[in-house]
Amino acid sequence: MRVTSEALRGIRSGHPWVYENSILSIKGEGVSGDLAVIFDDDRKFVAIGLYDPDSPIRIKIVHRGKPTTVDRAFWTAKLQTAMELRAKLIERGDTTGYRCINGENDEMPGIVLDYYAGTMVLKIYNAIWVPHLNDLVPAINDVFHPDALVLRHARNVEKALLHGLEEGDALLGTAPTEPVLFREAGLTFEADVIRGQKTGYFLDQRENRVLVGTQAEGAKMLDMFAATGGFTVHAAAGGATEVVAVDISDPTLAVADRNLQHNVSVPNVAACKYRPMVGDAYEVLERLWRNGERFDIVVIDPPSFTPRQTSVDRALASYAILTEKAVRLVKPGGLYVQASCSSRVTADEFHLTVSHAAARAGRPLDEWRRTSHPVDHPIGFPQGAYLKAVFARVP
User: Which fold, 72-181?
Assistant: First the structure.
């Protein structure tokens, strides 16, 4: 394949995508998952990518520089390189749930590979990976020797392109029939690797959860969009006297309750009062305000509001509304934490929106810390940066 000079510059600078309109010529007919070999105008090798004829991102780059063979040894080397970046996290020993491959950011675009105490989950977001599973799965076994490797796939992956593979299939070992228990900074959580959201748990907020826990001694905390209770459990373990956990899903809050029970041997967890509330976030925030409830810590960790670029303005408006409603509930001197998990919203846009909204509500923020990605979710290119959070005191 030959691509535009602009696309060549992007590839050489590390960008993992080549769009359809950047392709100048193709030699031969390509099908999903074929290796697309890119040459420059001097017929010199540039890169290899996986070809996706059904996507505007026509090529996902997996290698650049010098020619190489894409086989089991190639994927093994990729996995080993990725694990070297995560060595310090793994060596800590108190965490057995982490991301091993973070898609494009680890030069394996369109997949994630997560580890939960011996059980691994390979989630494919694109059918281009199906032809390479015969090499990739043995490579995963060579590097990790997992008890089981479970396949998950995005809903938009065409069933015909999966060639009989099903959601939840065991590619190695036997798929677990119960949630898998793993450790996060010394605490125990469960991951439903077959039916749970993402790969079973939201691993990327680990460091933010731990940080909240360090500030929770004696606090009453509000955990909005609590999901399976990551922030709730860490706050309880850190000494919070009461946590109000709010989510729109009753079954999800039931998992949060189980996660607390997994840690009931921790005295602080056993002593913490837990109040789950099922409901719409905006309505619950209003109800708590009218009822006169105030909190030492308020955590706002919503899902992504930006499924497409055209929804960025609406997402920023939603962040602002949440901030205006939530910041009123923070006691003077209390801690306010708000996060965004959308790559389409930049860190600058997010922080400016939250800051201005808090000021409009009459509760300007005294920023303490801004956080980004943990070590197992590296950022390899601009669009790979999605997670951002602000920790602030409210005077």
Answer: Transcription Regulator spoIIAA (3.30.750)
User: What distances in angstroms separate CA 244 from CA 31, 126, 163, one per listed residue?
Assistant: 51, 38, 46
Q: How do the domains of the chain map onto residue ranges?
A: 2-64, 72-181, 202-394
Fill in the amino acid letter for 378.
P
Task: State the pTM of this model.
Answer: 0.95
Show the CA angle centred on residue 231, arms to residues 229 and 236, nearest 5°.
90
**Domain 202-394: homologous superfamily in CATH:** Vaccinia Virus protein VP39 (3.40.50.150)
The pLDDT tens digits of the residues spanning 181-215 come to 999 999 999 999 999 999 999 999 999 999 999 99
pLDDT at position 126, please?
93
Position 49 scores a pLDDT of 98
**Nearest-angstrom CA–CA distance, 31 and 35:** 9
- From residue 382, alpha-carbon distances to 15, 86, 208, 385 in Å are 8, 20, 21, 6
